Amino acid sequence: MKLIALTGGIASGKSTVARRLAEHGAVHIDADGLAREVVEPGTPGLAAIRERFGDGVLTAEGALDRAALGSLVFGDPEALADLNAIVHPAVRELFARRIREAGEADPHAVVVYDVPLLVEAGSDLSWDLVIVTEAPAATRVRRMVELRGMTRDDAERRIANQASDAARRAVADAVIDTGGTEQATLDQVDELWTRLGA
Questions:
Q1: Which of 5, 26, 23, 2 is nearest to 14 (CA)?
Q2: Residue 32's CB: how many other CB atoms inside 10 A?
Q3: Per-residue pLDDT for 57 more than 80?
Q4: Among 4, 20, 15, 10, which residue's Cα sits nearest to residue 135?
Q5: Is 14 in contact with 114 (CB distance < 8 Å)?
Q6: Which DSSP string do the residues of 141-184 spell out, in sequence order?
Q7: Reduced to 3 states, what is the DSSP secondary structure of residue 97?
Q8: CA-CA distances (angstroms) from residue 186 to 7, 28, 33, 179?
Q9: pLDDT tens digits for 136-180?
């Protein structure tokens, strides 16, 4: 089994690259998806968040109210550390289970872990390959404004709060330049897949 980390800044084309790798047969695991899954209603994760932060972080339907929780942890390092201590171990456990399942289904599986904050969070996992998606900041800001409805200031702030391109490049085994056309990005992914010999 090959274990690949896919990372990159916000709006740098990770989803496009992940989708193409999945089309080639890779098993795609999304870190953000795992983080949502471990706090769904009925999970120990949501119960622990409720116990720590109170009923005010739940919607009327009993789901996590992300905005309410965000307002509690934003600017409060201790509260954020408490939240991370609940969510991160649960995500790691779920990730390990997904890896195990992929390996049981196919011992030669190529597993792509789409993990936006790989550099920021650090990782003790041993990756066979780290792929970084990269596009100029101006392109990423435009994507966030046009495709996600963000203001320019919000978009620029999001980029500034993430690791730099240089920091990501330092951990990269392969860099996919997503600043051009979508086809140019897909061509780079296809070429990388061929090199992997998967």
A1: 5
A2: 12
A3: yes
A4: 10
A5: yes
A6: HHHHHHHH---HHHHHHHHHTSPPHHHHHHH-SEEEE-SS-HHH
A7: helix
A8: 16, 16, 23, 12
A9: 999 999 999 998 888 999 899 889 888 888 999 999 999 999 999
